[in-house]
Design goal:
Distance between the termini: 36 Å
Structural class: alpha/beta
Order of helices and strands: EEEHEHEEEHEHEHEHEEEHHH
Length: 305
């Protein structure tokens, strides 16, 4: 039977409240007058990956635990309005939420509400198995309760990817994701020795590709034992916010690999998608489309492409 879904995204559905601040880190003061204001919108890591994949023409399905609350209504409306299928499992603690402090240069500091997740949260194994069995690939966000679903995904025989975000290479929570995924994304931000961590992931786990994003330095791709660097792409319009850039990179990269591209070529897709995300204000949820991405990759200088 042919898969009916290209990518199943597990976890990472939630809501962010965006607060623009005059600088980061924010010096202590009794109060600040905030402009352009404070806004709440749906969109966390899993939402952004699903949105990015969908915009690139991949058949995408999102599964997560979502509360019966205002934040949950925002998440459900985002998927409904964009035409992205969503399987919503009741979340007793409520929908995941965070506050993002965004500086003038687009950098952000995220404050996550840890009370929304419960140690007892679980997906029904039958639901995970059914959705995974009809997908070509599954992207697993590191939010609760996705770790418990990893064995079920493996049993379903679907290939896996995950994003460890700003993992320090030590925190044991991330290891289950790092060692069971076929494609591992992570940031170099908290790594003392990115190459050592990348090779450790590949050496001890299932990963055939490890990608470490490094902001303006670009991204590093470990594949077949060879480490290469993909330069960052400069957006055509000013950078306004880095929120969602890593998720967009992952979406572009997965689009490339699922269409048979070599990982180095897929990294260019990721770089273009990530650069586009940096031009989208944090109060919006938007992603680059297939035609625009392919055109921008084709227009890259030969020394890059």
């Amino acid at each position: 039977m042919q898969p009916s879904t290209d990518v199943l995204v597990l976890g990472g559905a939630g809501v962010d409240t965006i607060v623009h601040v005059p600088e980061l880190p924010l010096p202590y003061a009794d109060s600040y007058m905030i402009r352009p204001g404070i806004e709440t919108r749906a969109g966390q890591s899993g939402d952004f990956v699903a949105l990015g994949l969908h915009a690139l023409g991949l058949r995408t399905h999102h599964l997560d635990m979502i509360g019966d609350d205002h934040e949950g209504d925002l998440v459900r409306a985002l998927h409904r309005d964009r035409g992205i299928p969503l399987t919503s499992v009741p979340a007793p603690g409520g929908t995941k939420r965070a506050v993002n402090l965004v500086g003038p240069d687009g950098r952000r500091l995220s404050l996550y509400d840890a009370d929304r997740a419960r140690d007892s949260d679980r997906f029904e194994e039958a639901t995970v198995h059914t959705l995974a069995s009809s997908a070509r690939h599954a992207h697993v966000v590191i939010t609760q309760p996705c770790g418990a679903a990893l064995p079920v995904l493996r049993e379903a025989g679907v290939s896996l990817s995950t994003d460890l975000h700003d993992w320090d290479g030590v925190n044991p929570y991330h290891e289950a994701f790092a060692l069971q995924a076929d494609i591992v994304f992570l940031s170099t931000a908290a790594l003392a020795d990115p190459e050592r961590t990348m090779r450790d992931i590949a050496g001890r786990g299932s990963a055939r590709i490890v990608v470490a994003t490094a902001g303006a330095e670009g991204a590093y791709v470990l594949y077949g034992g060879e480490l290469t660097r993909t330069p960052a792409v400069t957006p055509h319009v000013p950078v306004v916010d880095s929120n969602g850039a890593g998720d967009a990179f992952a979406s572009g990269f997965l689009f490339g690999t699922l269409n048979g591209e070599h990982p180095r070529r897929a990294a260019l897709y990721g770089a273009v998608a990530g650069a586009y995300a940096c031009t989208v204000p944090s109060t919006r949820a938007d992603a680059i489309g297939r035609e625009a991405l392919l055109a921008q990759v084709a227009a890259l200088p030969s020394r890059v492409a």
